[in-house]
Specification:
The chain is an alpha+beta fold and 109 residues long. 17% of the residues lie in helices and 41% in strands.
Length: 109
């Protein structure tokens, strides 16, 4: 009987943690269904404040990505045009076919 009284508080605690971490991540597909993008706010206080993201091509079409632009309400907030296939020193991985890349966007918060 003693273990049962801990079940409800543990479930509530895990639900709150899940809701908190889910509320600061965004995941969507592009309108044409070709791309999936995910952004997640960095919660580690020992790391720079910002967003970790990943863009992944969902189909098998061969494409050449020359530049990625990230916009908010039509205004470009950051962009990148440098892509090196393989694993970077920070552990992020980029592949060209199908295209997939990981990135970190540092914010001033």
């Amino acid at each position: 009987m003693g273990k049962k009284k801990y079940v409800i508080p543990v479930i509530v605690f895990l639900s709150v943690v899940y809701a908190y971490t889910s509320s600061i991540s965004i995941s969507e597909k592009s309108e044409n269904g070709m791309w999936k993008y995910t952004y997640k706010m960095n919660l580690d206080a020992s790391e720079p404040t910002g967003w970790q993201g990943k863009i992944k091509q969902l189909d098998k079409q061969e494409v050449k990505v020359e530049k990625l632009e990230f916009k908010d309400n039509g205004k470009t907030i950051t962009d990148t045009d440098i892509f090196n296939e393989g694993r970077d020193i920070d552990g992020s991985v980029t592949t060209f076919h199908p295209f997939s890349t990981e990135f970190f966007w540092e914010t001033d918060q």
